[in-house]
Amino acid sequence: MKTRYLNALCFILIFCISCSTKQSLDTNSFSQEVFSLEDSYCEETRLIQVHLPNDYDESKKYPVIYVLDAQYRLFKNYIVSTIDYLSGDEIPESIVVAIETNDRSSGLIGGERELFREFLSKKLIPHINSGYNTLNFNVLIGHSNSASFVLYTLFNDLDSDDFDGFIAFSPSIFPEEINLKSKKTNYLYFSYGSLGQSERLGENNAIGFTEKLKAGEQSHLKYKAEQFGNASHNNIVSFSLLNSFLHVFDLWNFLSLEYRFLNDSTFNLLNELELKDKRLSKVLNKKTTLSSNVYNYVANLYLSKNRISEAKNIIVRGLKKIDDDDEFKLYYTLTKILIIENKIDSALLTIDKSSASLDEDHIEFSYMKPMIEFYRVFLNILKEKEAGKSIEEKVDQLKKDIRESKLHNKESFYEKEFSIYFK
Q: pLDDT tens digits for 8-43?
């Protein structure tokens, strides 16, 4: 089996060299705990490796990613390293539980697979939940035979909701029947390659399985199937890993919604965002996962499309729903919208609210406060312009004050924000 994951190893080495701005991709970023756990169902002792994020916080809860086939060190280390690399940006920080399998045939696709499933459900998962700060969100990952076990776990006769995300790389066997009992939303990702004789034979099974999923119309299943023409059974993991994590952690991934918005003028970004927030809030057991920053960012996306009224509605909705330290940003953006609508008096009121809600201890105070004050000066100049007064000297003074300020973008701030109104 040494040659089985050579491509994955090469990928790791190349990635480590090229990503000098990121911490090393080896598992040193994790603290690792190893223990043996008796599997009375399969009558064997299993070696379990638990990888905790380096900044593991006892006050936080984490999703758990269960990795099968941990006896293959390159496979396991590749997955753990990728999780480490993506954590905090593309996916949430997670606990990784790696499980060694002694018999990949009987234990994963043969007569003992149901017993192994019982071990996971009744022994290992409760053990992890009792010993670590776990969130009610589990992901199961496998390749080849263990990928088939992942699919079996999702489509089985056991009424169990142990897992939320399912990742299956190049399954050796696909389920004949799709029997999804879970009533909660499940995320399935599976991939397959076409490079090689056995892969081309398996491709037909994968395509047939995908057609069954399409015909099944499972409302609680969000699946993504990917075929890579230049991938083989052995190196499919290298092609699939990023997309698989982005899919199963879709609740945490807002960039996918932004992509759809930028490419589909009919897509209602805010509604989809709040729907995702509602689902994620249930998982995290908190009121909302959205912040002023999110509402402000979405509003500016609409502004970039010149959809002014929609941008304004988003800001207003955010001000009603959110109470955090970044509220000043919503008022700041609302000010810009009111200027576009030529409502100068209202804009002066909102810029005052932006200033009042910006605490001097806020990390962005040093550059946001001058920008707010420059907007206040600008608005007063606009009022004088509307009244027919001469404004040339005051405009020149505004330019000078901006040039002499400590704004990091002072060279473009005037041109970007104010110049169009004085032409």
A: 434 333 333 333 333 333 344 566 788 888 887 888
Q: Provide CATH 1.25.40 ranges for the chain.
A: 291-422
Q: Does domain 2-252 have CATH number 3.40.50.1820?
A: yes
Q: Where in the chain is the domain with CATH 3.40.50.1820?
A: 2-252
Q: Which CATH architecture has domain 291-422?
A: Alpha Horseshoe (1.25)
As given in the structure block, the two tokens for residue 418 are 């104010």
Predicted TM-score (pTM) of this structure: 0.73
Distance, in Å, from the CA atom of 318 to the CA atom of 347, rounded to the nearest integer, reads 17
